[in-house]
Amino acid sequence: MDLAAAAGRLSIVKWLHTNRTEGCTTAAMDHAAANGHLEVVKWLHFNRAEGCTTSAIDDAVAKCFVEGPVGDETSEARVNSASFATPVDERRFEIIQFLHSNRTEGCTSAAMTNAVGNGNLMLLQWLHFNTRARCTKHDMDKAAAMGRLDIVQWLHENCREGCTTAAMDGAAAAGYLGVVQWLHENRKEGCTTEAIDEAAANGELEVVKWLCENREEGCTPDAIEEAAQNGDLPMVKILHNVNRDRLVINRGEHAMFILELLGECDVDIARNSEQVAVLADANALREAAATGQLHIVQWLAHKVLNVDTMRAMCEAFISANFDVVLYLHGQLPQNYYPGDRMIKPLWAQARILNSGRVTKEMLVWLSENYPCPTAEDMQAAIPQFQFPLRVQLLSG
């Protein structure tokens, strides 16, 4: 009977009620309500004694919306209002009203959360004024991340639960500048570095600009690295120049350890903010080189140490981005040699020739400009070739 009720098969429910003795459970009315079967809910209420649980209203609210596009989410709307009304499913709303008037189980905060998640401000208001259910602080977080400024404002004015930093973080990540600005002006929770980090990763340039100018949380090196990997040069430029001191704080001792480990400088030098910021730029350069983002590489290359340029060139070579390789090679001093510690692993990666990514032309170029210390090392890296390597490659 539970299954028949959930499917809205009232005739089967009645037959089982008359001809069988097994009966049903509270799941019958719970699922009938959630699935929008009003007549089944009414029949079970008047003819059976099992009743329902709070899940009946909670789950009915979760599905109480009309599917399909309900607005034009233009970039202008996202910046200014970010408000898109979600039509209420009248059939399920009638079920909710029936259960509220005829049953005593009520609902829980999940109903309010479900109404927010569906963007149903009208239903949210009805639940607030007609039931004992209350919101949680995460409901405003969710509304903000959805860009529903109207719901955020209503919760702010009518509920005491407030929100967390996830509200502004989520709105920023999704590009809802209007919501970010409203939270900044009307709430005290603020945001975290996730706001810029996620907005940068998602290409939300205007949001990142505004946060950099109006908030103090800053970002982590992840922001510029993600922007570089995405090939987002305007974003990289902004992140390169803002909140450099914050970048140091967020890197912290970890950055100093990395710098010392790489042998680029000692701990005292690493404590200089410019030195730590260079590390972030170097990471971004390697990401851009590995993904073939030449325009990003061109902008970052002159901001890092020679050793970082060489590392980026190695990443580009391994990824077969030869145009990036040639550009970075041209940025290095004449006769610059980074040492065997970097060259040997690069030659070891030449095994990728077997997959067709690294061409013979690239290997010839590598042998001419960055030869391996010994022929044995080169032979070990590419055993299918005999030496002299250049002659073998050209004859192939």
UniProtKB/TrEMBL annotation:
<dbReference type="InterPro" id="IPR036770">
    <property type="entry name" value="Ankyrin_rpt-contain_sf"/>
</dbReference>
<dbReference type="InterPro" id="IPR052050">
    <property type="entry name" value="SecEffector_AnkRepeat"/>
</dbReference>
<dbReference type="Pfam" id="PF13637">
    <property type="entry name" value="Ank_4"/>
</dbReference>
<protein>
    <submittedName>
        <fullName>Unnamed protein product</fullName>
    </submittedName>
</protein>
<dbReference type="InterPro" id="IPR002110">
    <property type="entry name" value="Ankyrin_rpt"/>
</dbReference>
